[in-house]
Amino acid sequence: MEKKVIQYIEEQGILEAGDHVLIGVSGGADSLALLYFLDKFADRFQISIGVAHLHHGLRGQAADADEAFVRNFCQDRNIPFFSRQRNIQEISRTEKISVEEAGRKERYDFFMAIADQHRYNRIAMGHHINDQAETMLMRLIRGTGVKGVSGIKSSRDNLYIRPFLCLQKKEILVYCEIHKLAFRTDASNFQRDYTRNKIRLDIMPMILEVNPKAEVHFNEFTKIANEYEAFFEKYVDQIEARILTAKEKMVLIDRDLWLNEEAVVQKEILRRSIFKFKGSLKEIEYNHITALSSLLKSNKTIWEIHFPNKVQVTRRYHRVMVTEKQEVKDDMIIPKRIHPNKTYIFSKEHLIIETALISQDDFRKKRCFFSKEIENHSEKYFDYDKIKGRLILRSRRSGDYFYPAGMAGKKSIKKYYIDKKVDRNRRNEIPLLVIDNEVLWILGHAINQRFLADDDSKNIIRVTYLMLGEKCDSRYSGNFG
Fold it and tell me: Residue 18: pLDDT above 90?
């Protein structure tokens, strides 16, 4: 067995002379055998080793005994030992994740912290062929792609190494027996509350009845998948640079270029767009990617789709963006009646509205300072005699319409926003000056030609708006006449 592992380490190139290796040791057969092996051959590989043990706080005295066992094993051999105790059950409840996930996260965080503090450049784990088979099955059951079934790697991130991936569990148990390694047994490994345990205890025995070599074949398949994955990764690397652009708080996807690629490449680019934004693909499954791919291929120009961990992909016409999911906010403007000769300050909207009644003479004098009323100015002049009803400033409502200056006929506000490609998330924020459902002015955008003042207007109301910065003082909210 030792020759087999030495050959595997050398073939995979996972250890180099001078490496400082931190070994994750629970006290079970796999991790204890790995510790014994690396300690025995430390001089051969010219490495130094240390041990990290996480007490999960789940099994009371049994967990205390595990920690003491590993500590004593290391002390007897003068191996540096590091431990930490965490309440995994509490962390699971607080972070709303499974106990399995909480334990895994805490272990890896602990190993990384010790490696950083004590300058270990390798972290060795005791995974073996049976773990590989279980992992592949678990991912297939949950839903995954080729990357998922490529399984556990012998080396990851030039940090984590798994020297025992060439061994079956039974080989490790024989090794422990030969060298009298009195490993600890974790009773929780036999509880069917955990997905991996169900696979190991119930599903795998049924598969092995059909073919006793199934675990070995699973492992061979992951090797093949790994080879395909390595080639594919290099190929997509070149394409990704052209299609994805990382910007502040978002990743942009060039849809036109994306559409030119094969379906398998398209899906990988979408996976990478989420990873590029979030730094993780946690809980992102194959069905998420296929749903996004279908939407992106459709002719719909405005949509958004939400994924786990607050990931949101949005299309707004030609722009496709991966961003953080936006919380629903109250962006509606509270309706306010607007009277002549007053000033209104809307502190939440950072907006000031001023109104004044002026004469035809004043209006004529002003005309030399502006050209066409269809331009988007912050000052507008309306025929006050045409305003029959209450003049209100508010957000959009269903059924709102106007007669755009410079255009023929009536148009709904919804259609106007779509034609002008106004961001859907901003539409409620845009102030409208209205009478019932007829809009006189979409502030900052367009005006209604039916109410514009002209040479025949006798009474004219001037409306001016000013957008303030975020520092508008709420104590001035109200109106002044």
Answer: yes
